[in-house]
Design goal:
Layout: H1 2-19, E1 30-36, E2 39-41, E3 46-54, E4 57-61, E5 66-71, E6 78-79, E7 84-88, H2 91-127, H3 132-164, E8 167-169, E9 174-179, E10 186-187, E11 192-198, E12 202-209, H4 213-218, E13 220-225, E14 232-240, E15 250-257, E16 269-275, E17 281-286, E18 298-302, E19 308-312, E20 314-318, E21 322-327, E22 334-338, E23 349-352
Parallel strand pairs: 1-23
Antiparallel strand pairs: 1-22, 2-17, 3-12, 3-16, 4-11, 5-7, 5-10, 6-9, 7-8, 9-11, 12-15, 13-14, 13-16, 14-15, 17-21, 18-19, 18-22, 20-21
Length: 357
């Protein structure tokens, strides 16, 4: 009886051992590095710090020499066209005008006398009481008197102009950026006295590094003021220096501001943003994301179930470390960026967005 029980127990244990055979362990999911698809301009925007400057800034000076009587403006003052800025002592200029008036009166009297004498000799010639030589001499004298009167009239006009030049006036609306004279100072003709910046046209001046010159020439630009970042101004490249600054090795670029009103003050700081004129948008992926087995460039796109699918793409350009994709992908999709050679179609993967060490 005991021997039979032992055999039954042994058989039960053997059967139980067969039923509890361990299941094969499932292979773990392969980890892959993914990148989310995000379209961006093919040429990235570049920003530069700029300063607001006037397009025209002139050093105004008196057109005649003399002693400064008074200065009528200060630095920073706004002026209108025709507004007096400074005056010279007009005493000597008035004397020159009086002298020119006297010369003009004498020349006029001399001409009248010469013409009267010419008429008298002409009448005597008709009666035979004078000679042709006397008539020729009087004609020459009358012509000389006429020329003298013309010179005196021109001198009188110049003297009047010189007196008007004693007042230095603004030739346009602007702001005084520098005053270089004081009362009592003696100036030569044309010496700078007042520096005036015109307000009709304003510019954003940028120092451009040499590796960005090509982008500056070809790109479309806009500007924003640091004091008013919510408003954007259209700008256009007006001038680009042909040579670099010897100290900074940068090129000076001048952008004309459109629609700049009184809120845009000279000397303000602005940001000039330069982007590509083309509106083409691409996805920037690392070169390690490409998968090609002779059927064209493709990438692995991971779906919501974690299973990768091979997708053909259109490549716009290759760069040193990236590939620019122009088609085949949608915004927000996840693309395998590393580990594409170890992926199997339809086999789930475990996605990571950053390498962990």
């Amino acid at each position: 009886m005991s021997a039979r029980l032992v055999l039954l127990l042994a058989a039960s244990l053997a059967l139980a051992g067969c039923q509890d055979k361990p299941k094969e362990a499932e292979a773990p999911s392969r980890p892959v590095l993914v990148k989310t698809v995000s379209f961006e301009p093919r040429t990235p925007e570049r920003s530069f710090v700029a300063t607001i400057r006037p397009r025209t800034e002139s050093d105004l000076g008196f057109r005649v020499g003399g002693k400064v009587l008074r200065r009528l403006v200060d630095t920073g003052q706004r002026v209108k066209p025709g507004q007096p800025l400074a005056e010279l002592d007009p005493a000597d200029l008035r004397l020159q005008l009086e002298q020119a008036e006297a010369e003009a009166g004498a020349a006029k009297a001399s001409l009248q006398q010469a013409q009267a004498e010419l008429r008298r000799i002409s009448s005597l010639i008709e009666k035979g009481w004078s000679t042709p030589a006397a008539l020729d001499r009087q004609k020459a004298a009358a012509q000389e008197a006429e020329g003298r009167q013309t010179r005196s009239e021109r001198a009188l006009v110049l003297a009047r102009n010189a007196l008007s030049y004693a007042v230095l006036s603004a030739d346009a609306e602007g702001v005084v950026t520098a005053t270089q004279v004081e009362p009592g100072q003696v100036l030569a003709a044309g010496q700078p006295a007042i520096r005036l910046a015109r307000l009709d046209q304003k510019e954003a001046v940028v120092a451009v590094p040499e590796n960005q010159v090509a982008a500056i020439r070809e790109g479309a630009a806009s500007a924003t003021l640091w004091s008013a970042p919510d408003r954007t101004y259209e700008v256009s490249l007006r001038e680009l220096s042909p040579s670099a600054d010897a100290a900074t090795r940068t090129y000076l670029a001048r952008y004309a501001l459109r629609g700049a009103g009184p809120e845009v003050e000279l000397g303000m700081t602005a940001t000039v943003t330069v982007g590509a004129r083309s509106r083409e948008r691409v996805v920037r992926l690392p070169l390690s994301a490409l998968y090609n087995q002779g059927q064209g460039p493709s990438v692995w796109v991971v779906g919501g179930d974690g299973k990768p699918a091979l997708r053909a793409i259109q490549v716009a350009a290759y760069e040193a470390q990236d590939v620019l994709v122009s088609g085949g992908l949608a915004e927000g999709e996840r693309v395998v960026a590393l580990g594409v050679q170890k992926i199997e179609q339809g086999r789930p993967v475990r996605t990571v967005t950053a390498l962990q060490f």
